[in-house]
Amino acid sequence: MKSRNHHLTEVLFLFVFIILKFILSYFLVNGVYELHRDEFLHLDQGSHLAAGFTSIPPLTSIFSVIIKFLGNSVFWVKFFPTLFGALTMLFAWQIVGVLRGNLLAKSLVAIAYICSAYLRLNILYQPNSFDVLAWTAIYYYLLKYFENRQAKYLYCFAIWLGLGFLNKYNVMFLVLGILPAVIILPNRNIFKDKHLYFSILLVLIIISPNVIWQIVNNFPVISHMKELAETQLVNVKRADFFKEQFLFFISDIFILIACFVGLIVYKPFRKHLWVILSYVFTIIIFSYFKAKGYYALGLYPALLAFGSVYICQIIGKRYVLAVLLIFVMVGFFAYTIPLLMPVYSPKEIVRNHNRFERVGALRWEDGKNRDLPQDYADMQGWKELAAIVDSAYGKVKDKAAVVVRTDNYGQAGAINYYSKFKNINAVSYNADYLYWFKMDKPIKDLILIREAGESDPERKKEKPFFDKIIKIGELKNNLAREKGTTVFLLEGAKIDVNSRLKSEIEERKHDH
């Protein structure tokens, strides 16, 4: 009876933490912010299901189909990353159970998870939240396997590795980190288990559709990685990568320190030494490739679990110390919330410019500081842009013979999401939209969306080919990344626009 009551108490505590996770994820986002440019792309992938995409593997598109089925509202867009975050917290809770931690340790890991960068990560509908979930599940099932050598845990490990691959290729860095960590320790006995090889076969079966797609399409992932390295990772400094690992968990720093100490000196943890070695190897690999700091976030839920258990071993029954630690964690996290979560409006952030700049929050992927964090600037101006495009689209007589062509995937996705016209089908030569042009009928009109600073603001290039060119409007939001983006309506095509577009599309595909 006592055991049953204890179990019910644990379930109740876990339920409270999960509800708290959802509440914070929704209520710590200022309503002035719109969806993020990446979210629009992922949502549109749900309308173009395939075994792969140029930017990411296909799993996110499956979730997008579900979101569309549920109504495609912002609530459901935000629900799934929050759900993945809650499941990650659940796995961390379970890891504490594997380590024979008590309810206090489980509560501590839940609080540590909430009081960290994961809260920010889980408000964006991107592959990153599921990525962290998959990494944590992989750690959990390997820990369970090494604990009792039951084959079923290897197959669960395989399923999560396969799903992690179909979500984001980033998971292979974890594999590269775990492999040497296991080989150099007694855990290498895993290679004597025939079920390991059957589980590897299961992984290959799960990922085979995407691997075949990559082969058939000449490995677009390689081109994407090259572009990423040339445009974004080139501006990443290794020192910043390591600094961000600290800043992500500044409220939880004592728990992480306890993890590293515990895995070295605490005897019950020594059989799990492969965990800390896998962390070290993976961090070294990421650092070598000058990865972005958040790429490594999947490593930490397991570490927080170890740290929580060891701290509770040190504290023992001195619960006053536990309460004090939780108070410090929550208090410090509350102080950093304006820096971590979009609770401030853009104008408030500008007024507190120095505070954000000191922690590097205003540094964009090009290495320069701006008025807003890049993610926040990417959540501004989209409704305004869609309204301008709708104004142009409303003037078109034959809507089946018009193409809405944008400069980037953010513009295209935002127009498709916020437009009052359901079948507007905005496209771009950028990202996956390059493959989503519809030209079933001869094109008579063209709605052109061009970024600020474009070299031909008067559209002199297109004037010989259309009867009339009208500037419909310009995005005015000063703090939006798309500020100055202009919408043009090109009416009455004098040339075969279809052939011209097909030629340009093939040229861009060749470049990719």
Backbone CA Rg: 25 Å
* Mean pLDDT value: 92
Query: Looking at the chains present, what oligomeric state does this protein adopt?
Result: single chain
Which structural class is indicated by helix and strand composition? mainly alpha
The level of helicity is 55-70%
So how many helices? 22
Largest beta sheet: strand ordering: 2-1-3-5-4
Largest sheet: 5 strands, mixed
| SS elements, strand count | 5
Structural features, described:
The protein is mainly α and 512 residues long. The chain is built from 22 helices and five strands. The protein has a five-stranded mixed beta sheet. Helix 2 crosses helix 3, helix 2 packs across helix 21 and helix 4 packs across helix 15. The protein is globular, with a radius of gyration of 25 Å.
For the structure shown, list the relevant keywords.
mainly alpha, 512 residues, single chain, 5-stranded mixed sheet, globular
Which SSEs are present, and which pair or pack?
Layout: H1 2-27, H2 37-45, H3 59-69, H4 74-98, H5 103-114, H6 118-121, H7 127-148, H8 151-167, H9 171-183, H10 194-216, H11 220-231, H12 238-248, H13 253-265, H14 273-288, H15 300-315, H16 319-340, H17 346-351, H18 353-358, H19 374-377, H20 382-395, E1 402-406, H21 409-418, E2 427-428, E3 445-450, E4 466-474, E5 486-493, H22 497-511
Parallel strand pairs: 1-2, 1-3
Antiparallel strand pairs: 3-5, 4-5
